[in-house]
């Protein structure tokens, strides 16, 4: 059996997906309960401001700037006590902070744009998009985990936003990441793509589903493919992963080898599911399909799975 580590590329496929450009030094071993206060006292601190699933962006000379200083953010009623320290860049500390001003009441020089649109439209650079994913996931976790799950007491943020402490029973809670298997079932000639009911018209993608407790990644890939498409899988191999801040998931991309061809799609989960041959998928990637079918955008891990298979001839 070969040892694949030394045959792997120097830059793994995960480095090329959306939200993977985060350059922040997290310094996780140095987080203290007062690290947010110390970071905010640093004049070089930069803040990402967020509210209701939107990122606040300053309008410049044709550019959109996601970074705010601590002082200039005060007019937006930022909730500094709920901010999280993402880490440190070359210029200083970086934080994600909830803003109190409603997006509809912002000055004309600031726009609030939802995370998905920021990512889909490439409105900020890759490093900022990676920081946005980190901050959005942490703020979403804090918003949905304010109370201790053991005794119901309101918990307190600690460790710069990477822990919540219950003052009543002493339980400590840590940010969660939900693992999701996303898989492209493929032979050398064709691959399996499906349409979710929430997809835009014409888009087909790889199948996906949450990994359940006590389940390996490979087992989840096989189970989800069988449940959604009726396709049994043999070999399963890992390809890449992607942070996905909707709200705090990690997409784990794999390829699966089909053992049967007959699709039995779960139409409660999917609107459609079918086999596509390589040339047709290539036209979908190029947005030249005669039926106006297409694949997810370049930043999505599904796109990278599909592209890697198409280019594997």
List keywords for this structure.
single chain, 313 residues, alpha+beta, 6-stranded mixed beta sheet, 4-stranded mixed beta sheet, 6 helices, globular
What's the helical proportion of residues? Answer: 10-25%
End-to-end separation in angstroms reads 24 Å
Main structural class: alpha+beta
Rg over C-alpha atoms, rounded to the nearest angstrom: 22 Å
Number of strands: 15
How many separate helices?
6
- Strand-residue fraction? 25-35%
What summary fits the major beta sheet? 6 strands, mixed
What gross morphology would you assign? globular
Order of helices and strands: HEEEEEEHHEEEEEEHEEEHH
Please tell me the overall pLDDT. Answer: 95
Low-confidence stretches: none
GO molecular function: hydrolase activity
EC number: 3.6.1.22
Protein name: NAD(+) diphosphatase
Keywords: Hydrolase, Magnesium, Metal-binding, NAD
């Amino acid at each position: 059996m070969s040892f694949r580590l030394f045959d792997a590329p120097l830059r793994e496929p995960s480095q090329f997906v959306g939200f993977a450009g985060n350059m922040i030094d997290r310094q996780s071993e140095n987080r203290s309960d007062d690290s947010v206060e110390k970071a905010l006292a640093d004049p070089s601190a930069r803040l990402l401001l967020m509210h209701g699933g939107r990122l606040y962006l300053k309008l410049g000379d044709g550019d959109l700037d996601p970074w705010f200083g601590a002082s200039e953010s005060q007019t937006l009623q930022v909730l500094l006590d709920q901010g999280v320290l993402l880490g440190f860049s070359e210029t200083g500390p970086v934080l994600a902070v909830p803003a109190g001003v409603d997006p509809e009441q912002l000055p004309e020089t600031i726009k609030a744009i939802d995370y998905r649109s920021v990512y889909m439209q490439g409105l900020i650079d890759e490093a900022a998009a990676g920081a946005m994913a980190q901050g959005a996931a942490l703020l979403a976790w804090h918003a949905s985990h304010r109370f201790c799950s053991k005794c119901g007491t309101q918990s307190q943020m600690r460790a710069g936003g990477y822990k919540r402490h219950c003052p009543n029973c002493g339980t400590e809670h840590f940010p969660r990441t939900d693992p999701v298997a996303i898989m492209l079932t493929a032979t050398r000639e064709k691959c399996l793509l499906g349409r979710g009911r929430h997809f835009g018209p014409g888009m087909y993608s790889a199948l996906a589903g949450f990994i359940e407790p006590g389940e390996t990644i490979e087992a989840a890939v096989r189970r989800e493919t069988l449940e959604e498409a009726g396709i049994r899988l043999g070999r399963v191999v890992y390809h890449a992963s992607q942070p996905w801040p909707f709200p705090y998931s990690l997409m784990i991309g794999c390829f699966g080898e089909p053992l049967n061809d007959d699709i039995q799609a779960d139409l409660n989960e999917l609107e459609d599911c079918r086999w596509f041959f390589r040339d047709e998928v290539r036209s979908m990637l190029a947005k030249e399909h005669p039926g106006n079918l297409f694949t997810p955008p370049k930043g999505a891990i599904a796109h990278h799975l599909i592209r890697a298979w198409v280019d594997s001839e």
